[in-house]
Design a protein that fits this description.
The complex is a heterodimer.
Chain A (H helix, E strand, L loop, with lengths): L1 H11 L6 H6 L3 H13 L7 H10 L12 H7 L9 H18 L3 E8 L6 E7 L8 E5 L6 E2 L5 H7 L13 E12 L2 E12 H16 L1 E3 L3 E3 L5 E3 L8 H4 L5 E3 L11 H5 L20 E6 L4 E6 L5 E5 L6 E7 L7 H4 L1
Parallel strand pairs in A: 1-14
Antiparallel strand pairs in A: 1-2, 2-3, 3-4, 5-6, 7-10, 8-9, 11-12, 12-13, 13-14
Helix pairs in contact in A: 1-3, 3-4, 7-8
Chain B lengths: L28 E4 L6 H6 L45 E2 L25 E2 L4 H9 L5 H11 L12 H8 L22 H5 L3 H16 L9 H15 L8 H13 L13 H14 L8 H8 L7 H10 L6 H17 L2 E10 L6 E8 L6 H27 L27 E5 L7 E2 L5 H9 L22 H16 L1 E3 L3 E2 L19 E2 L8 H6 L4 E3 L15 H7 L4 H10 L27 E5 L10 E5 L6 E5 L2 E2 L1
Classes of the chains: A alpha+beta, B alpha+beta.
Family (chain A): Belongs to the flagellar radial spoke RSP9 family.
Protein name (chain A): Radial spoke head protein 9 homolog
InterPro entries (chain A): RSP9
């Protein structure tokens, strides 16, 4: 246990709040490590396990449209104007619990709603213990029966990038796309028009994946990384302070870091490796593709993405409440640079 | 923190080896001189130990947590990094108070200090007490290591060196004294052969303690101090079940250390805007005039122009659209305030437009008959005045310089704006950023603004006077752009079920009006609601009740040629103008109350989507129509109610 204690102190003492963050940013493992070390020094040893148990039992997990806190989250995210009708809310609460039981997920989050012409898709995601692992996505047309979607692959992305326009709302609908394909026939090369059928389900999968990769965000300090690799929810995350909440740099993309390696050493020196392991929003291109607003005076900070209009992220500063939801047509706003 | 409770267990073994000189009774900052070194063990300790030790905050037991001061850690960089065998400075050690009953303080350890520090209440003593039932080992260790030269002096800021340091610790384990007593390894450690027995244990304890005392550049609180604080707090307050609240105590102690409570005279600066907003919104909820007489109640019960926002919000919520209910209520109050301030005949909450830094709440109002807005006339006068100024300047220039060939191009005539209360300017729009803020009136929209607004696509920033930078250039600032968009949206998406509105009796012949079409309608008193299912099935059951905007930018067509004929002065230009304008044809748009099924398709999809709000119980559900052209435009109808 000594090994786990040491890095947590050596790495964790950074940031503006310094030392308390070291202890705060630690989840059950590290704190138990500390306690174990102290126990070896003659303290707390008989009560260590009890402490661990209480630690883990205390305080809710990070709120990101969790099934348990769905109502509060929807209320806070309602500033964008899109929400759920009461019957949908009620059915979501019940069905998400059942999904969690059936698929044995650690947490089930309500991701959002994609508006289609005929019907809307309601999307939920299930998570395992490791927060950054690929999530399982489920969709439903009536918030009651959920179907699992296949994980997104590169070919799916390439295939569906040619499809434009709104979603139909019918999962079995097929888009037709004519392509020119070169066909070799006995030495002769000629082009032929091939009609490619793309299923709407595939398109759904790739759009959800794109949205997640591009604009799913999480506040700094909500997750922490243990030295062994897995990412955990930070149970001591008390929320961003007001001054931090207005800055883009306090929010991270909820995905594997892409730009982190490109930072200079000077920048990296200020980072806290256990908390700053994801890309922050301030380097997003184009600049200004996020709109930060404070609502209700300063009691709620809302970030809206302009690249994927419909994604709303909300956070009540100094509290644990935060989350994001996507309610939109599932189309990327490629006019963004002209609109700013 | 109250007075410290009497020490429950007087220490039974004051270590005999403690030097009384190390003890001081005062509180406050103190720095005592270093003790003569303990020479013998000193040399034996390898020189490469360097447990980080910067400074130490010290807690006096009853003192407020806020009263601590810490020496500056970064300045100690110049200090020794290696253990010196000679002397080290000892910080003053404080007795918490005579009540605690500790006869002598355990001299904590060597540490370097810049400023004064307050004495530490040695946690070891407390721990000692706790451990009393378990083992006396710790006491012995504590006592023993007083005599040894503490080996920590190293002060380093970089944690990367941690690895080096600890790996160079050498043979003894840094923090596991108990390990050496484990029966599985009976005394095979190298020390037991060479040095007297307590030695490695003391060293290990010292290492442990020094490690606990380390702080970093960015914060000056060490784990040791924090634990001291925490345990002191617990011992002072003696909560019922300390284990279960341990974590929250931990967090609050940390929080208090870094965020001392500001004095009561000053408000928290961060919360200032929130409080201001709350104050402003509180004003909304107060009744106008203060008194609550019978008279006022009667007046309010009578018809008021304020719309029933809550009812609308309820239906829209069924459709899955809308703001949260307390937000809706605040909007309701804000509309009420608007109605009181302005002479308003009808009022309606039009919607909310999201902007980059702020959003707009839009209210659609129409003034009472005869209440002309004075501002508008002033604006017109100013514009005309401006135009008059320009002409004389041009003439001057022409006389002075060579005659430059005048361009043949004449700008197309400005199409006149529609009168208030007609066409696109049928309603007035007020906007505010948040309920509680004052309402601002938007200017009337001109056709050229609408035409340009069709060509550009820009985000709203939230500030009405922000410029709209775009190509083709938009004539006006954000207020004008907002108004133009509102006009377009209203014209396209204000719909109602078939039959809800009907045309009034016509007075003139349709042909005489130049094909402008009817532009007024009235509610149909005989309207019986269309069943919801039918509303959902067919788009023919819905009609537009807002006039369509022609490509010209107006609802009623105006022949720009007519205007030129009035200005007949320059013969030559007139002919050319006629040539250019020959192709102008009258623009006709779909007449009022056209069903939605006639709407043009957008990219092979119908421009409207209908939905039942709740498929589980169609009897009570609401028919919802959503526009695919303007995302965010919703209309609902249920029985006789419609929006």
């Amino acid at each position: 246990m000594g090994a786990s204690v040491r890095p947590s102190f050596s790495e964790g003492l950074g940031g503006e709040q310094g030392w308390p963050k070291a202890l705060r940013g630690r989840g059950p493992q590290a704190v138990s490590g500390i306690l174990t070390a102290l126990g070896r020094a003659g303290l707390w040893s008989p009560r260590r396990q009890l402490l661990l148990a209480t630690w883990q039992a205390l305080s809710r997990a990070l709120v990101t449209m969790d099934a348990e806190s769905l109502l509060l989250s929807l209320e806070l995210a309602s500033g964008s104007g899109q929400g759920l009708s009461p019957d949908r809310r009620a059915s979501l609460l019940t069905s998400l619990l059942l999904v969690k039981r059936d698929y044995r997920y650690d947490r089930v989050l309500f991701w959002g709603r994609i508006l289609g012409l005929v019907a809307d898709y309601y999307i939920a995601q299930g998570l395992s213990e490791d927060q950054l692992a690929p999530r399982k996505t489920l969709y439903s047309l009536n918030c009651m029966e959920w179907s699992l979607l296949p994980p997104a692959t590169e070919e799916m992305m390439a295939q569906t990038s040619v499809v434009k326009g709104r979603f139909m709302g019918d999962p079995s609908h097929e888009y037709e796309h004519t392509e020119l394909q070169k066909i070799n026939e006995g030495g002769k090369v000629f082009e032929e028009e091939v009609v490619v059928q793309i299923k709407e389900e595939t398109r759904l999968v790739s759009i959800i994946d794109q949205i997640d990769k591009a604009v799913a965000i999480i506040p700094r300090g909500a997750l922490f990384k243990t030295p062994f690799g897995p990412i955990h929810v930070n149970r001591t995350f008390e929320g961003l302070s007001l001054s931090e909440a207005k800055k883009l740099s306090s929010y991270f993309h909820f995905r594997e870091p892409v730009q982190l390696k490109n930072k200079t050493l000077l920048e990296k020196a200020d980072l806290d490796p256990s908390l700053d392991f994801m890309d922050s929003l301030e380097h997003d291109i184009p600049k200004g593709s996020w709109s930060i607003q404070m609502e209700r005076g300063n009691a709620l900070v809302v970030l809206r993405s302009l690249l994927w209009p419909g994604l709303t992220f909300f956070h009540a500063p100094r509290t644990k409440n935060c989350g994001y939801i996507y309610v939109g047509t599932g189309e990327k706003n490629i006019d963004l640079p002209f609109m700013l | 923190m109250g007075d410290p409770p009497p020490d429950p267990e007087p220490p039974s073994q004051p270590p005999s080896s403690r030097r009384s000189s190390q003890v001081s009774q005062r509180r406050g900052l103190e720095l005592s001189r270093p003790q003569p070194a303990f020479p013998e063990e000193a040399e034996q300790i390898p020189l490469d130990t360097s447990i980080l030790q910067s400074n130490r905050g010290v807690l006096a037991s009853q003192a407020n947590l806020q009263g601590w001061s810490l020496g500056a850690s970064p300045t100690q960089q110049e200090n020794l990094t290696m253990f010196q065998a000679e002397e080290a400075q000892l910080g003053g050690v404080e007795y918490p108070s005579p009540n605690m009953g500790f006869p002598s303080e355990l001299q904590p350890q060597l540490y370097l200090e810049e400023g004064g520090t307050q004495a530490t209440q040695n946690a070891g003593l407390m721990l000692q007490q706790l451990q009393r039932g378990q083992s006396n080992l710790f006491q012995q260790l504590e006592s023993a290591y007083l005599e040894t030269q503490p080996d920590l002096l190293g002060q380093f800021n970089m944690y990367q060196r941690d690895d080096l340091q600890f790996s160079q610790h050498g043979p003894y384990l840094r923090d596991e004294p108990t390990l050496q007593f484990s029966p599985s390894e009976p005394g095979f450690t190298p020390f037991t052969l060479e040095v007297p027995e307590p030695e490695p244990l003391e060293l290990a304890v010292q290492n442990a303690k020094a490690y606990l005392l380390q702080t970093s550049v960015s914060c000056s609180l060490s784990l040791y101090e924090h634990l001291v604080n925490l345990l002191t707090k617990i011992l002072n307050q003696r909560p019922e079940d300390p284990l279960s609240i341990l974590e929250s105590l931990n967090r609050t102690t940390q929080w208090q250390w870094f965020h001392p409570k500001l004095d009561t005279l000053r408000d928290d600066p961060e919360m200032q805007p929130t409080y201001e907003m709350a104050d402003r919104q509180k004003a909304l909820f107060l009744r106008n005039g203060g008194g609550e007489g019978q008279q006022e109640m009667e007046e309010e019960v009578a018809e008021t122009a304020v719309p029933n926002v809550m009812e609308t919000a309820f239906y829209l919520e069924q459709a899955g659209v809308g703001l949260s209910s307390d937000e809706s209520f605040r909007i309701f109050m804000a509309l009420k305030q608007l109605v009181e301030q302005q002479p308003i005949h009808t009022c309606r909450f039009w919607g909310k437009i999201l902007g980059l830094s702020r959003s707009y709440l839009v209210a659609e109002v129409s003034f009472r008959e005869g209440e002309e807005e004075g501002e508008e006339e002033e604006a017109e006068e100013m514009m005309e005045g401006g135009e008059g100024m320009d002409a004389p300047d041009e003439e001057d220039e022409e006389k002075d310089t060579d005659i430059i060939p005048k361009p043949m191009w004449k700008p197309p005539p400005v199409i006149p704006r529609e009168e208030s209360r007609s066409g696109t300017n049928k309603y007035l729009y007020f906007v505010c950023n948040e309920p509680g803020r004052p309402w601002t009136r938007l200017p009337h929209v001109t056709p050229v603004q609408i035409v340009q607004a069709r060509k550009i696509k820009k985000f709203f920033t939230g500030f009405l006077d922000a410029p709209v930078v775009s190509y083709p250039p938009f004539p006006g600032n954000e207020a004008n752009y907002l108004r133009a968009q509102i006009a377009r949206i209203s014209a396209a998406t204000h719909i109602s079920p078939l039959g809800f509105y009907q045309f009034g009796e016509e007075e003139g012949d349709e042909e005489e009006e130049g094909g402008a079409g009817r532009d007024s309608y009235e509610e149909n008193p005989d309207f019986e609601g269309i069943p919801v299912l039918e509303l959902v099935d067919s788009m023919a059951n819905w009609v537009h009740h807002a006039q369509h905007i022609l490509p010209q930018g107006r609802c009623t067509w105006v022949n720009p040629l007519q205007k030129i004929e009035e200005e007949e002065e320059l013969g030559e230009e007139e002919e050319k103008a006629d040539e250019g304008m020959e192709g102008v044809e009258q623009e006709v748009g779909p007449p009022l109350l056209t069903p939605l099924s006639e709407d043009a398709e957008i990219m092979h999809m119908s421009p409207w989507t209908t939905r039942l709000s709740c498929s589980l119980c169609p009897q009570y559900s609401v028919a919802v129509v959503r526009s695919n052209l303007w995302p965010g435009a919703y209309a609902y109808a249920s029985g006789k109610v419609q929006l």
